[in-house]
Design brief:
The protein is of the alpha/beta class. It has a single domain, classed as Rossmann fold, CATH 3.40.50. Helix content is 41%, strand content 13%. It has eight helices and seven strands. The protein has a seven-stranded parallel sheet with strand order 3-2-1-4-5-6-7, with helices on both faces. Helix 1 links the parallel strand 1 and strand 2. Helix 1 crosses helix 8 and helix 3 packs parallel to helix 5.
């Protein structure tokens, strides 16, 4: 049974690969035997991390919203490896406010800039569509492959704005409409693509992770942890098992599903 988790001789591409979770996705796939294409806007970081993983791996610069670049990377992967077996659509835009003093005002729904909303749609939805179309078509021609679309608990439920209140009960920030709207779209796009390519051997599933602890304010970590069944935020490596499971033959009869790994956030 454990052999079904092996990714030996398979080729995987991870977008947004040098971020906190992306690096752990890459490590997990590499540890399971895959040859990993580390794809990120930051070309230097992508190549350095691929070198860290080992000689079998490749680091590339990838803008998931640029069709010609995505196709160039497809051709580069096929020239080097001859196939594409796994796609992890991990790249995403999570809104950030450069001036903390303006965070509360700018993230309020009434004030949130439409340009930022459109930018999130472009990366989080169009980017997933485009990478799935270009890399997934190779899998469909091969007759086998696994696409993993990374969504979020906020693609399933509305944001709990209370976790962004400090010790004094003051709202410091609002989770905007952009992230939940785009991640909800990813969940249903997964269902569409699973139904469309099922007969061609391409499985498509969603991974919906919870929040990862990453040097946030103490009040936020405490507020978030209190909302979970397990009483903590995720660690960066908490999703490695789920990624290998969805990428491998261990999940061979699973497609169109949403694997929620959130410490029980959506259970309450």
């Amino acid at each position: 049974m454990l052999d079904t988790f092996s990714l030996s001789d398979r080729v995987a591409i991870v977008t947004g690969a040098v971020g906190l979770i992306g690096r752990n996705h890459c490590r997990a796939l590499a540890d399971a035997g895959a040859k990993v294409v580390v794809a990120d806007l930051n070309e230097t970081a992508a190549k350095d991390f691929a070198d860290e993983l080992g000689k079998a791996h490749l680091g590339v610069s990838l803008d998931v919203t640029n069709e010609s670049v995505v196709k160039q990377i497809r051709d580069q992967i096929l020239d080097r490896y001859g196939r594409i077996d796994i796609l992890v659509n991990n790249a995403a835009l999570n809104e950030a406010v450069e001036n903390p003093a303006l965070a509360l005002e700018l993230t309020a729904f009434e004030n949130f800039p439409v340009a930022q909303f459109r930018a999130s749609l472009d990366v989080n939805v169009t980017g997933v569509f485009l990478c799935s179309q270009v890399f997934g078509s190779v899998m469909a021609q091969q007759g086998k492959g696994s696409i993993i679309n990374v969504a979020s608990t906020y693609g399933l439920v509305g944001p709990d704005q209370s976790i962004y209140r400090n010790e004094a009960g003051e709202q410091t920030f609002y989770k905007t409409a952009a992230y939940p709207a785009t991640k909800g779209a990813v969940v249903n796009f997964t269902r569409f693509l699973a139904a469309y390519w099922g007969q061609k051997g391409v499985r498509v599933n969603t991974l919906s992770p919870g929040g990862v602890e990453n040097s946030q304010n103490e009040f936020f970590i405490r507020n978030y942890s209190a909302r979970t069944v397990l009483g903590r935020m995720a660690q960066p490596d908490d999703y490695q098992g789920a990624i290998v499971f969805l990428a491998s033959d261990a999940s061979a009869y699973m497609s169109g599903a949403n694997l929620v790994v959130d410490g029980g956030w959506t259970a309450m």
